[in-house]
Amino acid sequence: MENMEIFVLAVLLAACSAIVLGSLGDNFLEQPCGTVPNFKYKIIGGHNAPEATAPWMAMVIGERGFICGGSLIAKRFVLTAAHCVGNVDLKVHLGVLDQEEAKASNEFHVDGMFVHMDSDLGKHDIALLRLAKPVQYADKVSPICVLLDPLFKNLDEHIIKFRTYGWGQTQSSKSSRMLQKTSLFNLRRSECSILFPHMEIDRNHVCAERANASTCSGDSGGPLTAIVTYDHVPTVFQFGVTSYGFEDCSKATVFTNVMAHLDWIVNTVRREGNL
User: Fold this and answer.
1) 253: phi > 0 → left, psi -120 to 50 → alpha, else beta; which?
2) What is the per-residue burial (b if ≥16 Cβ within 10 Å, else e) of 150-160?
3) What is the per-residue pLDDT across 50-74, written as a single tens digit (0 to 9) for each?
4) For residues 55 and 223, what is the distance between their CA atoms, to the nearest angstrom?
5) Please, which residues bridge with residue 165 across strands?
6) Are 111 and 129 in contact (CB under 8 A)?
7) Is residue 109 exposed (0-12), middle (13-18) or buried (19+ Cβ within 10 Å)?
8) CA-to-CA distance for 106 and 103, rounded, in angstroms?
């Protein structure tokens, strides 16, 4: 299924190759990004993420410890959910899979928090954290790709299978010490709306689900990703930010649609990051 997904997207992208031949740097928020590692070896129904397979993963830490997940999208910016951000001092840990191995060398202080102006009850549940100092990219720390190419603003609708990551509750009902990952299948918004009748599900959201697999408490803010072959290179793109789901961590999860919030992301990063 995953190979079929990449093949279908490669065909879609190839169809527009005559227009995509411009500078790759203009099509990404940060470059290089989204490198696919060559490895051989309660997100509910998930398993441990091998080391360095998610170098963009960020732990958002508050005064009492771990709060949410996040994703590194630029040298000074981490993308997370708006409901993860409050009037508290925050720190971010990068390059760490095991919560107990986080240390000062992996820690970045947050000197700016930017919440979407229309965030409210599951709507526009997205925020940016500005790091006090730029990140030095390395094998275990590098950004995920945010695709800016307007030709593919609806690319999320063509994804068959996503992958999501987090340190949230597992089957044991305890927060996971190790970063977990799992695959979820794209769910039509019309079907998602039936599952969440009291919430408005629209273009600003992406829904995904899989039997016996889901996000759970603590996974908020983490990225919804997919591998896309772009300019002949398999690349990891971020399509969503974990927002909400069922209290018992079953069925579908609703994610904030990154592609639908590109203007806000880009404008905030460029305005507040002095790029």
Assistant:
1) beta
2) eebeebbeebe
3) 555 799 999 999 988 889 999 999 9
4) 12
5) 181
6) no
7) exposed
8) 6
Question: The domain 150-259 is classified under which CATH number: 1.20.58.220, 3.40.50.300, 3.30.2130.10, 2.40.10.10?
Answer: 2.40.10.10
> Cβ neighbours of residue 185 under 8 Å, at least 6 residues apart?
160, 161, 162, 208, 209, 210
User: How many CB atoms neighbour CB 199 within 10 A?
Assistant: 16
Instruction: Note the CATH architecture for domain 57-143+263-273.
Output: Beta Barrel (2.40)
Residue 13: both structure tokens together? 């992208």
What are 168-226's pLDDT values in tens digits?
A: 765 545 667 888 888 999 999 999 999 999 999 999 999 999 877 666 766 899 999 99
Backbone angles phi, psi at 190, to 5 degrees: -65, -40
State what percent of residues in the chain have pLDDT above 90: 55
Smallest CA-to-CA distance from 42 within 253, 239, 256 is with 253
Contacts of 25 (CB under 8 A, 6+ apart): 31
Phi, psi values for residue 53, rounded to 5°: -80, -10
Distance CA 161, CA 131 (A): 31
